[in-house]
Amino acid sequence: MAIARALALLPGVILFDEPTSALAPELVGELLAVIKNPAGGGTTLVIVTHGIGFAREIADRVVFMDGGRIVEQGPPAEVLDRPNRGRTRDFLSKVL
C-alpha cells in the first residue's frame, strides 16, 4: 500500500531498498505488477535487490556494486548472462 501511495504522488524518482525481502513469495508478483506500471509513468525507480530473477524481470538497466563502487552496468541480459568482471561472475555463480 505504501508503494501505491508513493507512486500516486508522481515523484521523479523513488528508491526501493530490498522491496521483496519481507514479502511472502506469492506477493512478489503483485509488487512486480505495481512497479512495472507506475501511475502516470515518468517515474525513475531505483531498486536495490539481491533477487537476481526480480532484477532481470523488472530492470531496464542493472548496476552491480562491490564495496560501494560500480563494478559493472548495462542491460540485464548483458550483465547477468555475460558479465565482464570476475567479481560479478563470482557473485552470480553463487546465487544462480
From TrEMBL:
| One Gene Ontology cellular component | plasma membrane
User: What keywords tag this UniProt record?
Assistant: Cell membrane, Membrane, Transport
Q: How does it sit in the membrane?
A: Peripheral membrane protein
**Cell compartments where the protein resides:** Cell membrane
- Domain of life, source organism: Bacteria
Q: Could you tell me which InterPro entries the record lists for this protein? A: MetN_ABC_transporter-like, P-loop_NTPase
Indicate yes or no for the key word Cell membrane.
yes
Q: Member of which family?
A: Belongs to the ABC transporter superfamily.
**PANTHER family per record:** AMINO ACID IMPORT ATP-BINDING PROTEIN, GLUTAMATE_ASPARTATE IMPORT ATP-BINDING PROTEIN GLTL
Protein's recorded name? Uncharacterized protein
Q: Which organism is it from?
A: Wenjunlia tyrosinilytica
